[in-house]
Amino acid sequence: MIRKRKTQAMKRTSRKKISWGKVVFSLAAISFFVSLVYTLFFSGLLGITAVNLSGTVDLDRSAILEATSGEISGKYFNVLEKNNLIFANGGAIASVLAEKFKRIESAEVEKKFPGTINIKITERKSMLVFCSAGSCYAVDEKGVAYSQADFESAELKENKLVILKEEGGRSVGIGEPALDRKNIEFILLLKEKMKSEFDIDLAGEFETPNRASSDIRASVSGGWKIYFGSDLGIEKEMEMLRIILENKIEKERIADLEYIDLRIENKVFYKFRGETQNDAEIIQNDTEVKGEEVKKERKKKKSH
What percent of the chain is predicted at pLDDT more than 70? Predict the structure, then answer.
């Protein structure tokens, strides 16, 4: 009987020890959790103390830093500080910057412990200036109009950007596609090809009846014009121009030209000032040119 009572007493003591152990463990766990939450979210240990910006060329660095600061300032639910490396959303920051600064092509945001954000900017590169409905825009290699064109800026002056003017047309929204990439590549290569293959300088301004059209019209420094069709391809049109200049237009008469039209495959129209329009068919097999002579031969055959 006495032994049974001792056994029961020992069990009660053991239960008390286990209960106290659980209490101590729970308190320690809670204390650790509270300390962790405080350290991560309230102590300022992970507060963002530095924002490093790289890659800017023409963009205003201070404006970008200010916009970034706006994304990491304030509080969530009036409780949690946004200025915390854990809460800083790199993707959201990049999206905000790209939306606010259309010149930004891409933004990479990297978080570095304990409190640094690194932002790498890639700016759009101006390829040409597109003018329509009385406004002009800087256009990148993808055809996106990312800003109003500032003709006094170093970018436009130093790079001597080509200008493409649309006849009539409508205005373009900043950040919207304005031109087909193929037409941009065609125009830029055109100036280079005309100079290298024919020693002909094209003026810096081109025209098109419609931004979606393949019809590209260029002015030559001598005062005459050339009409191109980007859908034919630049090599094809260079070949047609070479044949017509070698076979139909004497060098001394080039200065008298009003225009040369290369927009129709294997047929070239050309006109001298004060004269009627001429046309010439391009025979590809032997690079022979036939124009008015063809018409005369056809008339002779019909008369016989």
Answer: 75
CB 65 within 8 A of CB 21: no
Which residues 6+ apart lie within 8 Å of 155 measured at CB? 58, 126, 138, 161
Q: In Å, how far are 202, 267, 292 from 296, measured between CA atoms?
A: 35, 17, 6
Q: Which of 93, 101, 82 is nearest to 41 (CA)?
A: 82
Q: At what angle do helices 181-198 and 234-247 cross, to 10 degrees?
A: 30
The percent of the chain in helix, strand and coil, each rounded to the nearest 5, is: 40, 30, 30
Q: Domain coordinates of the chain in residue numbers?
A: 1-43, 50-123, 126-300
How is domain 50-123 classified at the CATH fold level?
Answer: Ubiquitin-like (UB roll) (3.10.20)
Express each pLDDT in 250-292 by its tens digit: 889 999 999 999 999 999 999 999 999 998 888 755 445 555 5
